[in-house]
Amino acid sequence: MNAPAPAAVAAERCATSQFSVPTLHCAGCIAKLEGGLAATPGVIDARVNFTAKRVRVTHLPELDTGAVRAAIARIGFPAEPFLGEADGAASRESRELVKALAVAGFAAMNVMLLSVSVWSGAEGATRQLFHWLSAMIALPAVAYAGRPFFRSAWAALRHGRTNMDVPISIGVVLACGLSLYETATGGHDAYFDGAVMLLFFLLAGRFLDSVMRARAQDSAGALLRQTAPGAQVLDKQNVPQWRAAEEVAPNMRMLVAAGDRLAADGVVESGTSSVDRSLITGESVPETVTAGSKVLAGTINMDGPLIVKVTAAGENTAIADIARLMEAAGGTKSRYVRIADRAARLYAPAVHSLAALSFLGWMLAGAGVHQAVLIAVAVLIITCPCALGLAVPVAQVVASGALMRAGVLIKDGSALERLAEADVALFDKTGTLTLGRPTPFDTLPLTAEEKPVALALARASRHPLSRALAAALEAEGIQAATLADMIEQPGLGIEGHVDGMRARLGRADWVGAEQPAEGAALSTGFVLGSAPARLLRFEDALRPDAETAVARLRSQGLAPAILSGDRAQAVAAIGHQLAVEATAELSPADKFAAIERLAASGRRVLMVGDGLNDGPALKAAHVSIAPSSASDVGQTAADLLFLGDRLMPVPVAIAAARRTMAVVRQNFALAIGYNVLAVPLAIAGYVTPLIAALAMSGSSLIVVANALRLRSAAR
Question: What pLDDT score was predicted for residue 341?
């Protein structure tokens, strides 16, 4: 929603406030809140993030946070200012729903057992006893398990609006009230079984949706947690003092020790080292920095101490920009939620009207109040959107189980729908198409005398190529030599002495080795004493089935391409090997913009990436997949994860998603067909509330059975 912004308001004058709104339940709530805020004087724009249950309000500075919060309350939603902390609301909601679901399920099983006895022919005092026992079980269960619906319905009615929980609550309360009346007056029928079963199926659908949303949110928070909590700041006497990250400001000077993560963006004032920038660029090889080099918050100083003059801190750092991009992208997708809730908005008034017209019609036709109420309750129950509500979640759950067995984990409930629509597949390179683990390019050119020394040096370094060398030598069963006087030269490498000879492991020019023309970045040098210097070359190998997986994607109608932050030379080699278009040296914002351009041209982008730098792209894409080896941010930003070293789970997931959506469409047809047949019968008075509940449950079971066919979807 975009409220009409006053033309005279300059963007820099606007203030932005965020609020947690835990009572948002459907598109009706979203439209009501955004529309109400749009009509509030001083509000420029309001956008709801349904997944996180938050609203971001852009307003004039004259309108303070308290006034915006009061405006939200007047519209009918209690809100609290969002302070940038994970509030865990979705997890709390899931816990509450699972408790309610357990109570409703327990009550439904026991009440149905008693009902079966009544249906089997129990009469007189025995039937009365069973009805009272059913009431004793069902009424407390309905009071407890129905709270999520009753609270939502009451909050809507109190502010003069309605939502899909209103007819559900009315139907359950009326069914229980009518059943209690029948029980107390010795009537033949009671409908406690229908009420508790109705709640059970509704809670099942709502719990599944809640679990999916809980897994999807807070990816931006996960990114910000990658920054350092603070830094050693030098005072005027050059004495370091610990400052929390919030207290670091531009023009301060930070002392960053080897192995420390930077807490702010800045420029190196003195010192030489190498910095792991994979957080921002995805480049797996550390970058050498000296005086004048720019460094960014969240990156890691690998070798020697640096003094860094801060240029940007807190919300102005590059990593904070990435988090904002992810936040913005996360609030604009989930077409499934919008479609489902648009249907829900139409559902409530339609059901109320049908039930009211049924009641009035039968009263005018001469039926008594009891019969008219009975028919109205039957209409309310039989039109329950259980089958419609289960059509998508159940298919998603069954398909999720099949994909899980195939090594794919689904995190977002709407991911399969969006995955089925993808027509472009964009891949990050390092860690996605490749394994992200450097290995020796060929047999290591080291003699038996040199290998123990090289292993000793490699073990003493944190450089990725040193770790790869150590792993390769350890795999050969080499025992490390004992070196003396080992010292790490920042930005160059590490050296030590053995038997009077100097040994070095590091930059090729530092050890005296010749630099090759290609693959220079994935190489290191080694020299022992007066022996010839060795050049040790490494490669980041393609995933074993990458070419097969890319070919299958083409056969599925997707156009694969590479978007990478790595060096052009390395990316071009992978692109040539896979015969796909490749673009290199892209920043996170560049990837985000590229996906936005494709989306604007009508393409549905599948992004496959792993690094922290891929976070905004994973969020902005129509759907996204990350390997399980991805960073925390990559894992939380992606809609799906695949396990293991193989890439084939990506096209397998697409095939399963397309089968799932076919089943979903069949389920919608079944649910709509059920209503077309059942509602006229209920209005005509041929359906009691019990039969309505059974018919509703039957339609739900048919939908579930159809969804079970997806157990073999992941092939």
Answer: 52
